[in-house]
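Write out a record, focusing on structure:
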Amino acid sequence: MNALLRSGIAIAALMMAASVFAIALRPTHKLADAGPKVDLEAMIPKQFADWRIDDRIVPVLPSPDVQEKLDKIYNQTLARTYINSQGQRIMLSIAYGGDQSDAMQIHLPEVCYTAQGFQVNKTSLNQIATHYGELPVKRLVATLSNRTEPITYWITVGDEVVNAGHMRKLAQLKYGITGSVPDGILVRASSIDRDEKNAYELQASFLSEMLTAMPPSDRARVAGRSGN
């Protein structure tokens, strides 16, 4: 057997071993199957503090092509508009996915809004104060014609809030090496307001009061360890 043939056989053997190793380490245990089932409709209070659902406002649905992508990623979605006694409104959107491995990624609001024709800018990482400590969030502003929509959102993978891309990758890797597939939640609050500072303050108050009104177990699912 000449050296070239031996080298080819060795390389083929290594490639086969790598494939088998990768399959063996592929996460198979879904955390979503281990705990209580998530029911967003029941978990998120319909009325709390000075907020109640405004049934007169129907949330704008994504375009059919965007909705098709969302259906592949998420097991459940929830969209509501809340109003307070001053007539101020907050649009709340929550999406839950039982598989947040590398193969199934959260559909970021930046991507979702851009796909529907909005211009997205002024993105920043921030924190909002809650009764359970500081909650990391991401903020951005989406504009379309005369509509200005400041947005506050956060993402959980497993029990961690991971709003930056590298944080999501690290969380996925952490769960992956234990053979587990984490679930994930995206919570988004937005309002139509040209005054960004006012919008973010209102959204922060709304989200903090929403978390306060939730049972501890539900709050932990929605806000991760930051909600404890």
Helices lie at 3-25, 40-43, 64-73, 109-115, 165-176, 196-212, 216-223.
